[in-house]
Amino acid sequence: MTDTEPRRGRRPGRPDTRRVILDVARRRFVQDGYRAVTMRSIAAEADVDLALLSYYFGSKKGLFGAALALSVNPAEVLARLLADDNGLDTFPEQVLQQVLAAWEGPQSGAALVGMFKNAVGDDALGALIREALEGEIVDRLADLVGGRDARRHAAAFTTVMAGLITARYVLRLEPVGSMSRQDVIRLFAPQLRLALGMPPRLRRPTGSAAQL
Questions:
Q1: Which structural domain, as residue segments, surrounds residue 36?
Q2: Residue 73 has what pLDDT?
Q3: PANTHER family recorded for this chain (predicted)?
């Protein structure tokens, strides 16, 4: 092969490669749905090595979040918490802490609100996000909960979170819209525990009751 002959094989990682991958991913996700799309099929269509997708985005969840221009992807936040393998005891509080931080971030919050509003007005995008939520959040959480009603509990948990997000960040419904983060956690953590079928956390007695 001489210097004048055209090169064959996958394109190298050029400055525009990431943009090409995201363009392909965004179109494929909307067109085919979250579950049907694979990292390998996106790499093939973008004409890049599969390893390059992992290098840029880490996982399918990461690619999905990047394709929707999300600097923080709720599915990845949940995946990290589930990977900690600390059980369910403090899981509702941890999820609330992480999700509230993401939606209140100066850049991530604006992107998440924009995605939410676009999903309401765009049936295709709404269906895509619903499918991603079911596959990456409801299904994985159901595996952690276990039992005959695991998926129902996981769906209830996700519904409570979606209602909170809608009220606080989209509708700005008071008093939830202006509550402190800690107040929101105190108010909604018991509801999330109930949704998961968990017993309420017992509060430590204070004052004279603690000495009985």
A1: 14-67
A2: 65
A3: HTH-TYPE TRANSCRIPTIONAL REGULATOR RUTR, TRANSCRIPTIONAL REGULATORY PROTEIN
Same domain, 182 and 163: yes
207 vs 183 pLDDT, higher one: 183
Distance linking the first and last C-alpha atoms of the chain:
88
**163 is written with which tokens?**
């209602």
Number of domains within the chain? 2
Among 125, 77, 126, residue whose Cα is nearest residue 97: 77
- Indicate the SS3 state at residue 110: helix
pLDDT tens sequence across 128-145: 788 878 877 888 889 888
CB < 8 Å & 24+ apart, contacts of 145-151: 145/88, 145/196, 145/197, 147/197, 149/197
- Flag whether 45 is in a domain: yes
Residues 30 and 114 in one domain: no
Within this chain, do residues 30 and 101 fall inside the same structural domain, yes or no?
no
pLDDT at 47: 92
Quick: pLDDT tens for 39-56: 999 999 999 999 999 988
The pTM for the full model equals: 0.66
User: Do 186 and 83 lie in a common domain?
Assistant: yes
pLDDT digit string, tens, across residues 74-132 = 667 777 777 765 667 788 999 999 889 989 988 778 778 877 887 777 787 788 788 87
Q: Cis peptide leading into 12, omega within 30 of 0?
A: no
Shared-domain flag, residues 41 and 113: no
